[in-house]
Known about the structure:
The complex is a heterodimer of chains A (88) and B (306).
Chain A: E1 14-18, E2 21-26, E3 31-34, H1 37-45, H2 52-62, H3 67-83
Antiparallel strand pairs in A: 1-2, 2-3
Helix pairs in contact in A: 1-2, 2-3
Chain B: H1 16-20, E1 29-35, E2 38-45, H2 47-56, E3 72-78, E4 98-102, E5 105-109, E6 113-118, E7 123-128, H3 133-151, E8 158-167, E9 170-175, H4 182-187, E10 193-196, E11 199-204, E12 209-213, E13 229-240, E14 245-248, H5 251-259, H6 269-285, E15 288-293, H7 299-305
Parallel strand pairs in B: 2-3, 3-7, 9-13, 13-15
Antiparallel strand pairs in B: 1-2, 4-5, 5-6, 6-7, 8-9, 8-10, 8-11, 11-12, 12-13, 14-15
Amino acid sequence: MDLNTVLSKTPDAAYRxxxxxxxxxLPSRSEVNVLxxxxxLVWDAIDGRRTLxxxxxxxxxxxxxxxxxxxxDLLEFVNxxxxxxxxx
Amino acid sequence: MAPAHAPATGDFVPxxxxxxxxxxxxxxxxxxxxxxxxxxxxxxxxxxxxxxxxARYRPFVEGLxxxxxxxxxxxxxxxxxxxxxxxxxxxxETYRMERRSGxxxxxxxxxxxxxxxxxxxREADLALVAESGHLxxxxxxxxxxxxxxxxxxxxxxLLVHSAAVVxxxxxxxxxxxxxxxxxxxxxLSPRHTILSDDLAMVLPAHQGFVVAGIPFGMAxxxxxxxxxxxxxxxxxxxxxxxxxxxxxxxxxxxxAELSSCLPFVxxxxxxxxxxxxxxxxxxxxxxxxxxxxRKDDAFWQVIEEA
Lengths: 88, 306
């Protein structure tokens, strides 16, 4: 996976962004997950259209973090989401 | 009839053929019960079964005229099998309830029952492995709990794994997973009206939300002190501690904590989405806290400060 990748949320996931934090339910696993603010921003931006590069720019606009570090964290996070079946 | 398939666990999985087969009822008697705004008609019971349920659910029994419309009619009958899901050797596991959805149909089965809900007809066939005793009670009540949790979503409500206690004319909801202290809170409130020690219903009202007990919201098949609803004053996530304190529970953390205590509805995406939306509305209207408490009633003092 690289920054040109476009991801979609799995249609099985139910979620709600409430007060800046995303709560995600995966019915197949009966799990409720809550994401931190940055992860919530990334999750909310995953829409099947935007590339990870575009999502990275959103993160950099909202948070003061070095680009290299943000890129590494973003790829690590979306890989984790994919491993858990939360994005395709 | 042979099961649709027999997994290695020994579970009996009721398939299409099993649900489609016509089954006898237990008898000709019916009973209507009210669960918050929902009306359930339990049909196909023997007089003995109906009398026992009428006595147990007494505050919730509805004297509806014959043929009056209800939200759902349940046709009860014997399953003809000793169990559906099988407990593992040792006899305990996290409660399992399997489900399967088809066009307009929802099949659910657990240890003591299997049921097919027809959404269009607003009817359900409920097959129970026993005609009396704890297997009958548990099967019937667990299916009614699951139905209530699902149907109340359309009314903007939630069924919450919680204790609900009336204090000063208002309802306080204490939620948390098993073992968090829900029953303890009710036992520490002997002069209060107890609406639930396990499951309570939260509903939108003209102003804010109200909380109400349900006939099968107490452990050990007791019924709550009242079927009335009370303005919901606060939501408290129980944390056992050696001190007594409250800490604000806000935003996504509050939503996650509350959502973790919504039984039955997090196993299906559409229901889970509606449940999250409803929970968000509740949290918009009612403050949530983490309540650290110990085994005395000092927590009420802290709550009153809230």
